[in-house]
Write a structure and sequence with these properties.
One of its GO terms (molecular function) is calcium ion binding. The protein is mostly helical. It has helices spanning 3-11, 14-27, 37-46, 53-66, 76-90.
């Protein structure tokens, strides 16, 4: 297991990990084990946010930043690393 992934799994409590895994499964609408740009944009739209060109570019930037296997989407481990980073931002 990648060191970052290992760290991500220790940052969260077991309950938080379950919550994030459940969220991942929910957002992975086509059940391929990855969250695509389109699935993230749909999630953003479902939260009442307007999906603009800038939003699409930001989502692509996030995927590019955390997509360690460079397949154009986020798998569970990459998603957990993203969540660790979002938590760190929230604590600043």
């Amino acid at each position: 297991m990648d060191n970052k992934v290992s760290n991500a799994r220790t940052v969260f409590s077991p309950e938080e990990l379950t919550k994030f895994k459940d969220g991942f499964v929910k957002y992975d609408e086509n059940k391929d084990g990855r969250i695509s740009k389109e699935e993230l944009l749909k999630l953003i739209g479902s939260l009442g946010e307007q999906v603009t060109q800038a939003t699409q570019e930001q989502v692509q930037s996030v995927i590019t930043s955390f997509d360690t296997n460079v397949d154009g989407s986020l798998d569970l481990d990459e998603y957990l690393i993203l969540m660790v980073n979002l938590r760190a931002i929230g604590q600043e």
